[in-house]
Amino acid sequence: MYEFIYFRVRDVMTPHPVVVHKDVTLSEVEEIFERHDFNGIPVVDEKNRLVGMMTKLDFLKAFAFTEKSKMPRYDDIMAQKIRTVLTGDPLVVSPETPLTRVAQYMIETKFKSFPVTEDDCVVGIIAREDIMKAVRKAAQGEGPGPGVSVP
User: Is the per-residue pLDDT at 57 higher than 60?
Assistant: First the structure.
């Protein structure tokens, strides 16, 4: 397990993740969730700069109603832009962030994934499953990968 302390986000992140623009609809993002079973999708502007994160929980926010609110039609809800429910200013990590820190962030926040950014641009995503793979590799005595020296 000692090898785990040498893992960085870059070693296990998914590079070039699927991203969406804040003006896509809930219907469009639901299709992406259905097709890929992602935990969350980074939301970017025209220059690939991160503006938020769209999670399945955010999606469900569109269907939360109070006793005083009137239930809109399903098609009207699904036509909404995701900017109305996305999580703005999400916690991000860099490719050089130690996995030990990311694991701690996940435990503290209960978030399932984090966008990975460099210069405010999305370069990857890291999910719980990625951390679990690294833990398993470390338990088997494997390090992060070629080019990484482990004392």
Answer: yes
